[in-house]
UniProtKB/TrEMBL annotation:
Source superkingdom: Bacteria
Protein name per Swiss-Prot or TrEMBL: L-2-amino-thiazoline-4-carboxylic acid hydrolase
Pfam families: DUF6144
InterPro entries linked: DUF6144
Amino acid sequence: MEYLEGGRFGRITKHLRKQGYENEMEDILHDSKNFPKLKKPEQTKYVETVMGRMEKSIGKDNAERVLFECGVQCCGKSWSSFVKRIWNQSKSMNDFFIKLNEEEERYNTQFTYDPDRNSIAIERSKCVCGLINKGKPFKTHKSYCKCSIGHMSVFFNTVFNVKEVHIKQSIYSGSDTCKWHIQLK
């Protein structure tokens, strides 16, 4: 059977295959070729449907691992170059976060560094995921945004040593904002 391989949605296909779920893919992605024909809000609903199928077929933890890898790929070289450029232009840690907040203002994002805890708090009041941000928040499958952990890991490991990334809440899980906590080494 053929599945959608390209674009943002194709990352799910790629990482299901890469993690050895070829046999489960038919149950999860059997109608994925129709995805590009859907309007944006319908695409969001379809991603929620796929989340349910993944959790049922491979389990919630395995689905979250697939999503983590999707987020790693989503961050890619352009985001890594972006954060590295800001780091290289900064005179201090404080200056870095001032510049980063200025750049990320268009995404309604606020980064706060806590030097006493050596951690970063991130809050975003707008979903920036191009795969789902045109539809309604998910009602049942709250783990979709786990991909952002992979994204944030790559993003901040470009300039720091990240110990852990936690997503505390997300808009697509029913909260008003997305929040992450990043513990640095």
